[in-house]
## 1
Amino acid sequence: MSKARIGLFVTCLVDLYRPSVAFASIKLLEDAGYRVEVPQSQTCCGQPAFNNGDFGSTCEIARQVIDAFADFDYVVGASGSCIGTIKMHYPELFEDDPEWLAKARDLSARAFELTSFLTDIAGIDSVESGFGGELTYHDSCSGLRELGIKQQPRKLLGSIEGVSIREMQHSETCCGFGGTFCVKFPEISTRLASDKVDNICNSKAQVLIGGDLGCLLNIGGRLQRLDKPVRVFHVAEVLADMADGSAIGEEET
Amino acid sequence: MADSARDRILGRIRAVTGSKDGENPGLRISQPPLLIRPRIPSELLPRFVEKLELGGGSISQVAEHAGIPAEIGRFLDAEKFPATLRAAPALRNISWGDGLEVSYGSSDGGDLVSVTPAFCAIAETGSLLLVSGEDSPTTLNFLPDVHIVIVESDQLLAHPEDAWAKLRELGQVPRTVNVITGPSKTADIEQTLQIGAHGPRKLHVILVHPE
Amino acid sequence: MQSQSHRFKQNVSVALEDVSLQKALSRVQEGFVDKRAAVVSTLPEFEQLREQGREIRNHVLDHLDFYLRRFENRVQALGGQVHWAENAEQARDIVRDICRRVEAKTVIKGKSMISEEIALNEALELDGLDVVESDLGEYILQLAQEPPSHIIAPAIHKTRAQISELFYNAHQKLGYTKKLDTVPDLVNEAREVLRSRYLEADVGITGANFLVAETGSNIIVTNEGNGDLSCTLPRVHIVTASIDKVVPTLDDASALLRLLARSATGQEITSYTTFSSGPKRAGDADGPDEYHVVLLDNGRTEMLAGAFRDMLRCIRCGACMNHCPVYGAIGGHSHRWGYPGPIGSVLTPNFLGLEEAGDLANACTLNGHCASVCPVKIPLPDLLREHRRRQFERKLQPLPARLALAAWAGIARRPWIYQPLMATGIGMLRLLSRGRGKFKSLPMLGAWTRTRDLPAPQSRTFQTLWKKQRGKR
């Protein structure tokens, strides 16, 4: 039986900021027995346009994504936010366009966030990684509330021998990133990030893990501005044992 | 003027809802659908007591009507309230005896203690349901500091829906129906719970429960 | 009430610096969020009840004209009167005319959001009436001459010391000359002062949590017993309610009340749920001689016909604001108009227009916490996004933001331009970072870097690296 084919949805932030998250995702998916390809015609899921009310541009970008991933058995991305847009909102965009609605629904059914794909579809319940230490996990809002991602990353992280998870208070509260919100309302955004930093520090964990790069850039940036010694990694990097380099925002080694 | 506002508002609504006239909404009133009722995992009486106390109310039991005056006397004595009652006229058939000074009628705000009958009690929430009428003034439920309610054990129902069924048997809903669960309270100052905001500071139930 | 929604951004800065407001807001978590979670966890049927609540409210909206006519018919049959108001002005006039006709001097009020919406107190006071709010929180705000900052706990932003000062100044002339500092003392003083106001009031005005079509009743829920006294003691009872408040039957009301108390205050039920139906009956020992219901539209029929219809399911529990991180940071006064929090951000632009209140729809991270706790499953983030769509279409967003979005969307639609452009941009950014892993400041990105470091790109873009590596594979 030939391997099922996965199209990796890279996400724009991973493409620009942290390629290691994409490499880690590919490794995890290949180790799970899948063939992974990266369509070149992808850019972004369109969320910045969508959340700023430009539904026309969002539709154009959505058509581009739908076409780019038309031939894959699955579409997997290391972000609850981008996959949430593809899975939950693309079908809404084409409510009045039967042809594209069918395509959007088809893509929606095949689209999965990385940790939920690994546990819920690939049936993986443990990974091997040399990463060790006390972690705390920030639940990104879209992954949590649009896709129900809560236990999956914890299950996988918990399977790593040297890792223990120290839950922070209010792990489900927004960090204040919110896409363009963080620069449109910087004072409110900073306040929410500061609250998150307090909760992280109170957890006494040495490492913050999350599943969405946007949140991690925001929280990481605030942690570093406040000189907190907490390291920040994406969950894919830790699961794939590729977190031996610089953490987010750290000086290059 | 008011009529035309009415017609315009209803007209605008009908312009939206008109297409849905296929079903008859009147059926929901004449034959109400069975809605979800939370399961009560215990017997009704312990549930009623648990929820009543959770809401801040208290309860004592007597085996027969003749025991009511003495029980009220004990309660008021223990709580250091005078043995003076303002009672709903519906309770005129109780022989109060010598220990209690009882007057009947609505309250003008000068009464410390009232005693009223219940229409029924609801186990799900530990609530008392009181109705207004010739013999049961609503002011007694709110103005006195202490409100004592007499409940017969066969008045205890599981859910508010059971109370509505009983209420519908009256033919017409009374002017005021009070569902009361515990004493008056407020948390409007610094989210600090304080008993006795505008209504009674104490709610006490006397359950007449033949052995 | 004077709207200040257009000054939202200035209001935010003030709110974030307001020490006593921040102290008060920190109590929302314990006071509302934790209590709600605890009470929900003991009711296994809660999620089913939410779905049922959504269905009941949708059913009402599908047949709103039927249920309103049925309600009116029942109220009239019981000897009450129903008045219809298309807008705030008509509603104010109706209430004022009733007060004039009965020669009222004093009005006692239960808590009513509709009264806030139509600015009723100001209108009645202008007519020479003595208007007294009886809900403790509303009374405090009336003394402070401030609008509510929360729909369930209107004075949540006030500290005990501030309340003590307000009472001291207002009650001295009534013979209360001691400055109080404990909560029980403050509550007791308000109880005593307000008790006489109830007894002398000619008209009682309350809101309605629900109107029951089956019986012609209005329902109010309180913990204090204030609204209940306002229904009972004065000789005239006026209910101000919006047209969306109607429910078919007593059973439907119970189904929604189960959701309301848990979602609002984390209680299974409030101390008092009072059903008032018409004026007092022949022989009744007490109750009002007249019973009036003012049914207010004020833009709701327009919402019913459009994209904001789901909002009309709202039962005004306040759970959305209790769980909103933005509300938790700035409170309800930054909205400065009637409804705070997520429901306010949806409703206010509907009432006042996007030009006036457009900021509200944008001041949200779309985290979805509000919708996940809404007892009738209103998709609040989707409705906020709908406001943004309209802003975009009408070009109401600031020009620089629109230009930036248009430029980004233009290249994001063209991968053959996007990828080389991003590769070049990221390369330059990486050079600028000189291996330090982050930026302390960057031109054009001050909104980020004023308070946060900006992590630097790790390497070249993934697509660039992948092309190279794939060549080797």
Note: Residues 5-121 of chain A form one domain.
## 2
Amino acid sequence: MTTLAITGFLALSFALFAIAIFGILTRRNFILLLVSLEIGMNAAILNFVYFAALAPVNAGSTNGLPGQSIAVVLIGFAATEIAVGLAIVLALNRSKGSINVADSTTLRN
Amino acid sequence: MSPEELAFLALALIAIVTGTLALLVRELIHTIVWIGVFFVDLAALYFLLLAPFLGVLQLGVYAGAVTILLLFGIMVTRKRIFSREAATGITAVPVALAVVAFIFLLVALPEFPQGELTVRSFDPSLLSQNLFGPGGPWLLLLGLVMLSALIGAIYLVREGRE
Amino acid sequence: MTFADFALPFLPEILVLVGVLLVLLLDVFGVKRIEVFGSITVGATLLALLFVVADLGFLPFAALSTVPASRIDIPLAVVGTPLYSFTSLGFVFQAIFLSATLLVSLASMSRSSYEKGAGVFYALVGMATLGMLLVGIASDLIFLLLAIEVTAISTYLLVGYTRRDPRSLEAAMKFYVIGALSTVISFFGASLLFGAYGSTNLYYLRSVGGAVGYPTLILLGYGLLIAGLAFKVTLVPFHAWAVDVYDGAPSDVSAFLAGGTKKIGLFAFFLVFLGPVLFFTTTGTSNPFNAGVLNTGPIFQIVLGVLAVVTMTVGNVLALMQKEMKRMLAYSSISQVGYMMIGIVIATSPAIAGATLQIFSHTFMKTGAFLVVAAVASLGIGPLISDWKGLGQRRPWLSIAFALILLSLAGVPLTVGFVSKFVLFSSAVQAQGYFIWLAVAGLLNSAISVFYYGRVLKVMFFDAPDPEPEATVAGPSPPVSERLSMGGLGYARASTIALIAVVIVTFGIFPQVILGPIQSAAQHFLIAGP
């Protein structure tokens, strides 16, 4: 029987989410952008996993299992998203030779 | 303080530190190292939460596949792997934004559910029954996401004979 | 329950998926003609549209209905907790999405016959359509977000599918970054809601409303969901990407983005927020940790109302200042989202009907507008509005069709744009209270929009064309082949634009044909929908 403080988990996932948003807003290198996205998705997945353990406590839900199922699906989904991002960036790299978001200025006003 | 709580505190600290370092280090290749540690650390957290199946999945997909994928991304897109352009342009506004958001969340923390979380373990066979029973549509949708990613990504990356 | 009983309700989705697989198979086996891929996609979409319309109960087709009436619009108690459910408003939206796909895939058949990647283009359009159809039947938060992602991932790749063009790839990258950011935000919000409710079923979320012990979790969760979905529908603080993406993408894809895929975010708003906005007058319940009482209804109404007004105003003002046709249309598309949000804020059944009608008309108008831009570009005319000088004399039919579309966008009577705005704004007036201000803001913005639409009309019909315009145009001239007839437009594109013009006028004169079903669907949705 393991018992843990809930607040600690919430603080952790909020911290990870804040790091991810910070990374997406400031990093100009595409790889770092992808890394930030992964940190953010991991924060959401962590939420699902520990709320799955919490869910039986809530009124109206008998079972926290769906939380773990969602976590499984989201792990697969996040990996797919990374692959798509890399595909786009490889195609862009071939045509331009740079993967910095800041270098993409053709579309600016 | 119970051993589990100590373990949680240590793992949480490692997660935050490695996550931050991954975005702040100067060389891209070090980012991969730190993010790898981050993924393994989260897998350990899942084991702590008595979700071993998810822990193994996290190790396989993230610590294994995604890390290597990112590494290949770096290798293919630059001539020299050890290039130093990662940590540039830390502007004040986003940092302030992130800090303010986090402080707000910390202040709001007493409003969130309090108390002890009694961790329940789920039998992996129950999990698979849920995934292929009531949760089946989620899995189907994941398959559709992967199908469209496959179609487009192969086309984008393939060398055309034009 | 036999397999047929289980699978039949999903016939439209299955048809579209079969179409995608057929296109891919033919592409692999070396069929490279765009007409083949196009006809398969158009055929599958048309069949799917037929069955969806039959499910809505339109008389000539009602016999074809595949979903038993006992499964449509069933309230919570009967449904239990499946991840999908059938609502008539969902069918209306599926029909709207399918029409957008139909128009775009029909018009795209006019491109060069052996274009590279035509199979991939149609396969991705089909996958995006599949995602949109699944959004129409979602009744679970994660199901909804994943269905949105099916569409989103297809559209990132669609924007970049002309892979030799750095502009289009850059637009794809921008789109991807913003889309992935919104995905992270939405899923994080969904995870907080899962923590607060212990379930992600939208019926359950709506029935519980605010009567859960963690008001802060609920507020944060829904707040993050608003932010995440606002990226998808281009509400104003989150709109900046849209113009660049629509501008950089190939014009057919822009038509699909603005006319089709953007609308899924609006239906997601319907599914997620009609519950909270309407039903969040909470009383404290037994709560294991700390008692909390929260009345979130007014909070969300004010937030979404302010976002709606800001969106329509900023979109319109920026549209006024644009010099390029595509960018102007993109900004006007942003401002139109503001009108549609009015329906979600008011959340009465006439308002939902008005917003749905606005979405319906906007699908045809904006798809048509971007297709005209694509057609004009294929004639070798530049991207600036001033390049369109004297088009009325050189291409009278095309100009008249475009004029109809613009008049409908501005909301001139006898067009479908007028009907939808009328229903929407009058519902705001009916709702009384401060909602009247939403109608006032909408009317003022419609007045602003007349300026920039009128400017285009003036340029097209009353400005003399430049001498020898064809000779002065720089840049790549369109590939000329014997197929590009109909005054250089191509039969498929020309007939699509004509079809859109006919739809705009027909439903403008006889709105009751669609108004009735949409109103009853909206009523059922308020009573029984998630």
Note: Residues 122-162 of chain B form one domain.
